[in-house]
Amino acid sequence: MKVLAAVKRVVDYNVNVRVKADQSGVDIGNVKMSMNPFDEIAVEAAVRLKEQGAAADVVAVSCGTASSQETLRTALAIGADRGVLVQTDVALQPLAVAKLLRAVVQQEQPALVILGKQAIDDDACQTGQMLAALLGWPQATNASAIEVDGAVARVTREVDGGLEVLALTLPAIVTADLRLNEPRYVTLPNIMKAKKKPMDVLTPEALGVDPGSRLETLRVEEPAARAPGVKVADVAALIDKLKNEAKVI
Ligand code: AMP
């Protein structure tokens, strides 16, 4: 069985992002970029399926600029066998990514595609669902456990008040939640090995996909600045402020 893991290059989660002066978006010039954290979990899940003998081949796929090759190398260092970059300088929205991934799925014919539940830059939480709809495949979102048993994937999801277990007939789409696993530490020998693993570079044109936008961003704003905190002398002063200034008690 082949497993595809989708990985997105995003601004590292430790970076304090700044909005561009013209409010057209977030400034990503000279900012540390990393693999989307939920995608590290997706790759780790795919590699664990291979280690358990449930998967034979793990392919990591990314859509974006040439620098996404670096993100794919990280996926290869975690343990993916091969990388596929769909290279474009167009700013991609979830529907465009889903269409590109569908084209890659049609070429690669995986039994399972694992994506992150959300990209931490756009917080869209859409790509996996759109890909499932475009392919007409079953999907399980926000997976906290995945088991593959023959032609069925059993996926556990944390829902209000408990755990839901779904049985999906393969091929299927799964999106990874935080508790699915803790991705392994990438070691130097594995980084070196990853440099020799194969990477294919495709283009949207070659896949017959128009990656253009369907949505227009009107503006991006910084959140309103918060008023600085104050220290009060004692409990009586605190109660007085809560009652008379904040008017919350
Ligand atoms: P989103 O719908 O943008 O929140 O992204 C959900 C998931 O879709 C991510 O965690 C990735 O697994 C996948 N994804 C989104 N954008 C890309 C991309 N440009 N290349 C590869 N995978 C992506």
From TrEMBL:
<dbReference type="InterPro" id="IPR000049">
    <property type="entry name" value="ET-Flavoprotein_bsu_CS"/>
</dbReference>
<keyword id="KW-0813">Transport</keyword>
<comment type="similarity">
    <text>Belongs to the ETF beta-subunit/FixA family.</text>
</comment>
<dbReference type="InterPro" id="IPR033948">
    <property type="entry name" value="ETF_beta_N"/>
</dbReference>
<protein>
    <recommendedName>
        <fullName>Electron transfer flavoprotein subunit beta</fullName>
    </recommendedName>
</protein>
<feature type="domain" description="Electron transfer flavoprotein alpha/beta-subunit N-terminal">
    <location>
        <begin position="23"/>
        <end position="211"/>
    </location>
</feature>
<dbReference type="InterPro" id="IPR012255">
    <property type="entry name" value="ETF_b"/>
</dbReference>
<dbReference type="Pfam" id="PF01012">
    <property type="entry name" value="ETF"/>
</dbReference>
<keyword id="KW-0249">Electron transport</keyword>
<dbReference type="InterPro" id="IPR014729">
    <property type="entry name" value="Rossmann-like_a/b/a_fold"/>
</dbReference>
<dbReference type="InterPro" id="IPR014730">
    <property type="entry name" value="ETF_a/b_N"/>
</dbReference>
